[in-house]
Each structure stands twice: as structure tokens, then as C-alpha cells.
Amino acid sequence: MKKADVGVALYLLAAVIFFIVPIPPLLLSAMQAVNIALGLIIMFNALFAREVLDMSFFPTLLLFTTIFRISLNVSSTRAILTSGDPGNVVRVFGSFVGGNDLIIGAIVFIILIIIQFVVINKGSERVAEVTARFTLDAMPGKQMAIDADLNTGIISEKEARERRDKIQAESSFFGTMDGANVEIVEEVGLENAFIFGLKSDEVIRFENHGGYNPMDIYNTDADIKKVVDQLVDGTYASDKELFRSLYNSLLNTLDTDRADRYFILKDFRSYAEAHKRVEKAYKDTSSWAKSAMLNVAKVGKFTSDRTIQEYVDEIWHLDKVEL
Questions:
Q1: What Rg do the C-alpha atoms of the chain give, in angstroms?
Q2: What is the pTM of this model?
Q3: What CA–CA distance (Å, rounded) separates 307 from 312?
């Protein structure tokens, strides 16, 4: 076990203990000071990160720090209600921010809560979704540029592999924040949308515990084997090596650090079954017309006017100009 894993385990164990066991005011103040310091360190690292992958662990880090912070909140609340002594950190913040006045403190607390949920949470969520969409849309072009540079000899196989790995890492990071399909299903209902592929918990299980080998699917599914083989048998290009890197990325680790990183072969059969469901649903003209009308009626949320307005309000922060 790595030292980092031990540190994370002890960190979470401390959070659980703080939930259950009353903490002395001195230790509580020390832990709150550590929590504030961690928050500042995370903030400055995020501000000065040169590339997004420098903070690829950011979502997990936020989860751990949030659990720790909640446990401290529970401990400080328990201390206030039982002994009235939550420690120097809480006392100083109470006197400085709230002015030792219950009404002022309550008003400031409500304002902070509103800012946290309305401005910070929703604003950062929208910024993350927009950034994810733009980045994911640009990835096919980046991949084609790498293949073109490799075919012309501008870059070596090693450089191409490093660039592909970077794009894959970016895709894994940004893909978790792109909630377009989730939003659509929330609007129209699962019965009026066709979703295929692994569920999030299945992907997480494979990522954490392994157990997925694309060669198993390649060797047992004749349709998938035929499609994959066509990448390198001249079906799509006279140069059989043109799509070799794509072929390798699906079946082996010659061009990537892991075969079929995005579970494409794993999702293929589900994708084909989804097409059959679409064909079957289309034959029921009455039900299809109902679903189509519902989708059209609910699509208003995804208009460009709404999107641009959200950009103006939440990202660009522009003021209206009257002519």
C-alpha cells in the first residue's frame, strides 16, 4: 500500500471519528486551522495550475475535504450545544464576522449560504459543463491532427502516443462533467429517450477493480470482430496502416496505456440493441408521435437563446446595452 493511500485512509478515519467522538476545544481548533489551510492550498493550486490535468484529482479531493469539513461542523455544533466552548477559531470568527451579535451573525450566515448555493455552486457547475463541452467537441480534431503529424513524419510514435494519452486523460476528466444526456432524460423522461452503454457504477467498478478485457469480446462476438478488422484490412482506406492506431487502442497497449479505455467494444452490443429499440418504437406510430411531440415541447430548455443568456449572466458577466 502506498503512503498516499495510508494518508487518505487516516484522513477519512479522522473524519468519521469527529462525527462520533466529542473533540476537545484545543484539538477542534487545530483541525479547523488545518482545514482552512488545506482550503487555501487547494484554491491556489487551482488558480495557478498551467493545465487542467494538473488538477485532474480535483473532484475526488473536494469530496474528501467536504467530508472532513462536515465532520468538523458536527463537532463544533456539538461543542457549542453541550459546553458552549467550541474553541478559539470559532470564537474568533464569531466575534470578527458576526460582531458578537446573534442577529448580525444570522444575517451574515444567510447571505453566505445564498452566495454559496446560488452564485458559487451553480456558476461553477455551468462553467464546468461549458468547458467540458467545448473541450470534448475539439478532441476529434486534435486526434486527427496527431494522426496527420505522425503520417507525415513530423512527430515520432512515442510523441504521438504521449499526445494521445494526454487527450484520453482530458476526455476522462471532462467527460465526468458533461451532463447533457442527464439533463435531456430529466426533461423528457427515460421512456422517451434511448440510452445505451454501461452505467456509471459499472464503469467505476471496472476502473477501480479491472476485470474488462476487450479481447474477450473481440474473440466471442463475430460482428464486433468484423467491424474492428475492417479498420486494418483495407475496407476504409487503401493504406491499411491509416487506422492502425485506432485498431491498437481498442485491442492492445501498443499506442495507449490501456486497451479500449472508453469501453467502446463493451458498449457496442448495447448500442446495437438501442438501434433495434428505436426501430421497434418507430413502428408504433402513435407512441412515436407522442414521444416526438414531448421531446419537441421539452427542447425549449436547450435553445441557443437560453444558453447564450447563461453565458452572459454566469460566465461573461456582461451588462445589457440599450440602443
A1: 26
A2: 0.44
A3: 9
